[in-house]
């Protein structure tokens, strides 16, 4: 699918050439980028290999695991229920999921989960890959977790856990599993056909194989204690786990989304300006509330200051790939994927890739380089 406007063909070629340079220079293996502006697809580019073992090339239909970039879709589902009056951000999680009240969690609100201040970022001890793929087993274990700090007093990234907490609240309210809700309520209205929380068998041949990169040089001083609780070493956000067929098919709504850049960008385009093809998922007033800063203190899990709204990350230090524009919101993913929306410029960006890297210098990451190149090419 080529960009629809002749005036943006130069921007598309600029970005495509930049992606090819990244691959040719050995910085990347396979990657895609798509950009909507004012509801129109203006950049649709890709480069490199989707699978180094078979030399399969990336094309526009290749699907990528995007890790925490998935959270943006999950958050939209929760905000859609809020918009419909089915929940309030100040409601306790336990109002809908009574078992969650165990071990001093009765007062934790949906809003505290969304801004990562609920105090339960840790994975249940002993969680296996089999557990990870079993929704009911994970929810039962999470309900029995104690908070690690007074809910609301600090913020700490709930890396994996947030997906089951919010997803179970959604299921208890609506009755549908979160994967089905997303397909019917988030994907269907704007016509997203390449975005999955658990892939069907028929699309596996289109999924790119993730590639684990060596650790950054210089290596970090040492692991952060809470980060190891949130992402146990045996369940890493890495190719060794997320290339597994059973993990690709599981609904892991905070980290396991599989999609292409076009649908990621189109998803964000459906929440800015007039939406896409006459469809807007959530009104401007709701998204302005969602993108209002709620936290900017040092994250207890990541050890970094990150501006957070109601779920979405906001522009600022340690979220450099999200454009610094009023009202902008989005979410990055481990290894370098990102999706974001910029209401001021009517912009929506989706970026997906295979090589999972974590450079010590955030300004040298590919997602920052590519999103900066997008803005240069479009004159923003």
From the structure provided, what is the oligomeric state, counting identical versus distinct chains?
Answer: single chain
Question: Which percent range describes the beta-strand content?
Answer: 5-15%
Which residues form runs of ≥5 with pLDDT under 50? Answer: none
Total of DSSP H or I helical runs spanning 4+ residues: 14
**Average of the residue pLDDT scores:** 94
The CATH architecture category equals 3-Layer(aba) Sandwich
The CATH topology turns out to be Beta-lactamase
Q: Could you state the CATH homologous superfamily?
A: DD-peptidase/beta-lactamase superfamily
Tell me the helix content. 25-40%
Q: Write down the CATH class.
A: Alpha Beta
Shape: globular
| SSE series | HEEEEHHHHHHHEEHHHEHHEEEEH
Tally of structural domains: 1
Instruction: Write out the strand line-up for the largest beta sheet, numbering strands in chain order.
Output: 3-2-1-10-9-8
User: Span between N and C termini?
Assistant: 23 Å
* Radius of gyration using CA atoms only: 19 Å
Number of strands: 11
Largest sheet: 6 strands, antiparallel
How would you classify the helix and strand content by structural class?
A: alpha+beta
Summarize this structure as a short list of keywords or feature phrases.
alpha+beta, six-stranded antiparallel β-sheet, 13% strand, Beta-lactamase, 14 helices, 380 residues
Structure explained in plain terms:
The protein has 380 residues and is an alpha+beta fold. It has one domain (6-378): Beta-lactamase. The protein is 31% helix and 13% strand. It contains 14 helices and 11 strands. The protein has a 6-stranded antiparallel sheet with strand order 3-2-1-10-9-8. Strand 8 (329-332) and strand 9 form a beta hairpin. The longest helix is centred in the N-terminal third of the chain and has 16 residues, at 9-24. It is globular. The protein starts with 8 loop residues before the first helix and ends with a helix.
């Amino acid at each position: 699918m080529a960009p629809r406007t002749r005036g943006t063909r130069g921007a598309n070629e600029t970005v495509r050439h930049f992606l090819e340079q990244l691959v040719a220079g050995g910085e990347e293996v396979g990657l895609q980028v798509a950009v909507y502006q004012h509801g129109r697809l203006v950049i649709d580019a890709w480069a490199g290999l989707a699978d180094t073992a078979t030399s399969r090339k990336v094309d526009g239909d290749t699907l990528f695991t995007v890790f925490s970039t998935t959270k943006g879709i999950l958050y939209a589902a929760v905000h859609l229920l809020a918009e419909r009056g089915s929940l309030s951000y100040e409601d306790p999680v336990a109002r809908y999921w009574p078992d969650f009240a165990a071990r001093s969690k009765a007062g934790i609100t949906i809003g505290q989960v969304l801004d990562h201040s609920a105090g339960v970022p840790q994975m249940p001890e002993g969680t296996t890959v089999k557990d990870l793929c079993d929704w009911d087993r994970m929810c039962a274990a999470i309900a029995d977790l104690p908070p690690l700090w007074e809910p609301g007093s600090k913020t700490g990234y709930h890396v994996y856990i947030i997906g089951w907490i919010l997803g179970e609240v959604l299921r208890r309210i609506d009755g549908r599993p979160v994967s089905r809700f997303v397909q019917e309520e988030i994907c269907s209205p704007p016509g997203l056909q390449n975005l999955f929380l658990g892939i069907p068998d028929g699309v596996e041949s289109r999924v790119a194989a993730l590639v684990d990169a060596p650790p950054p040089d210089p290596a970090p001083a040492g692991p952060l204690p809470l980060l190891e609780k949130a992402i146990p070493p045996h369940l890493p956000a890495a190719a060794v786990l997320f290339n597994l067929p059973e993990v690709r098919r599981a609904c892991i709504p905070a980290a396991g989304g599989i999609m292409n850049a076009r649908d990621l960008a189109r998803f964000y385009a459906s929440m800015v300006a007039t939406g896409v093809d006459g469809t807007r998922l959530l009104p401007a007033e709701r998204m302005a509330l969602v993108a209002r800063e709620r936290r900017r203190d040092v994250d207890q899990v990541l050890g970094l200051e990150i501006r957070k709204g109601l779920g979405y990350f906001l522009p600022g230090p340690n979220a450099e790939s999200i454009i610094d524009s009023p009202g902008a919101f989005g979410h990055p993913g481990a290894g370098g994927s990102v999706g974001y929306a910029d209401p001021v410029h009517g912009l929506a960006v989706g970026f997906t890739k295979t090589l999972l890297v974590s450079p010590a210098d955030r300004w040298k990451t590919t997602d920052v380089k590519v999103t900066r190149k997008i803005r240069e090419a479009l004159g923003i």
